[in-house]
Specification:
Length: 342
């Protein structure tokens, strides 16, 4: 384990779930009330929820943040298909079994958001509520999402690029410090960076305004030319940066990239899933300045969710739980207190 990470997180615990060893961090009184499970995105770790774990501990809320499959201290299977929705949601069910909990509220950011919105569709009896942070509940695409992105944005669009075996894995791992610094910048830094010229909006939104032939998101070129000595808008302090860098230097990025390599498989296998979420409390927390998952991507969620509240975090870019932790903590704990009182 990274020494920097160990200094900033609760003691790590391990559970044998769904055929893997899952590392997780737990606070609050186990068995008291409905647990809150935090699910991270890419390229992140359970460490991304450090501020929320502290707040939950102070409030006496039972909360858990796992390193998800492929990340951190959790197992990293070799097979790409081991990272599909069945496995990723199944891991969370296995974690509930390990914790002795019938249900949980699942809170997810970025890729973690995609997973938690799948929980009531795939495992409704184990889901007490859902909190989406930045990531909305999306409609199933009318066609294979990789084919859709390739057609609209070309081979250099980062999700399309991620489909190539080993290519992105090696590029991101070549200088982990640079990669983490490049990703984790505040909204004001991203607004003036070269990648600000790339297409905006959620690339998975079938109603999006990205037209065929529009300029591509040449992510690898942007990463290569970015000067990591540029400290404007850096999100992480040195100890936080070290926790991410030391961990990804040990694990690489393949586990997380393999989540992206299952977009087509997930689409093919989701045809018969429900298209609505009813009789379940849901909260959507939007970030005002998130260019990839803007508040507008959540505009139509109310048509597909029967019990939905929406809250906007102003002045935040994509890394909302780390960029505006106090506001996210307030929103989440207030909602939990109303919808799941102790």
């Amino acid at each position: 384990m990274s020494a920097a990470l160990a200094r900033q997180m609760p003691p790590v615990q391990h559970a044998k779930v769904n055929g893997i060893d899952m590392a997780y961090y737990e606070v609050g009184p186990r068995g008291k009330g409905v647990p809150l499970i935090f699910c991270h995105g890419f390229p992140e770790l359970a460490f991304s929820w450090r501020h929320q774990l502290r707040a939950c501990e102070a409030a006496g809320v039972w909360a858990i943040a796992p390193d998800q499959r492929g990340y951190g201290l959790t197992s990293r299977p070799d097979e790409v298909t081991a990272y599909d929705l069945e496995h990723l949601t199944g891991d969370l069910v296995g974690l509930l079994d390990h914790l002795g909990a019938e249900k949980a509220v699942f809170c997810g950011h970025d890729w973690g958001g995609l997973i938690v919105w799948m929980m009531p569709l795939m495992h409704p009896t184990r889901t007490a509520g859902v909190i989406g942070l930045n990531t909305p509940f999306m409609q199933r695409q009318p066609m294979d999402p990789i084919a859709l992105m390739r057609m609209a944005l070309g081979e250099d669009m980062y999700i399309v690029w991620f489909q190539k075996p080993d290519d992105a894995d090696k590029a991101l791992a070549a200088d982990v410090d640079k990669t983490i610094r490049f990703f984790m910048r505040k909204a004001e830094a991203m607004a003036t960076a070269p990648e600000a010229e790339a297409p905006k909006g959620n690339p998975l939104d079938p109603q999006g305004q990205v037209a065929e032939g529009q300029s591509t998101f040449a992510f690898r070129e942007l990463l290569a030319m970015w000067d990591k000595s540029d400290t404007v808008g850096q999100l992480l302090n040195p100890d936080e940066l070290a926790a991410f860098v030391e961990t990804f230097e040990q694990t690489g990025f393949t586990g997380g990239i393999n989540w992206y390599r299952n977009f087509t498989r997930n689409w093919e296998r989701s045809a018969d899933l429900p298209t609505r979420i009813d009789d379940l409390p849901c909260l959507m927390v939007m970030a005002e300045l998130d260019a990839v998952l803007p508040p507008s991507s959540a505009d139509n969620m109310g048509e597909r969710i029967g019990d939905l509240e929406k809250v906007l975090v102003k002045g935040s870019g994509h890394w909302t739980q780390q960029e505006k932790p106090d506001e996210v903590n307030r929103i989440v704990l207030e909602w939990m207190g109303r919808r799941f009182p102790k």
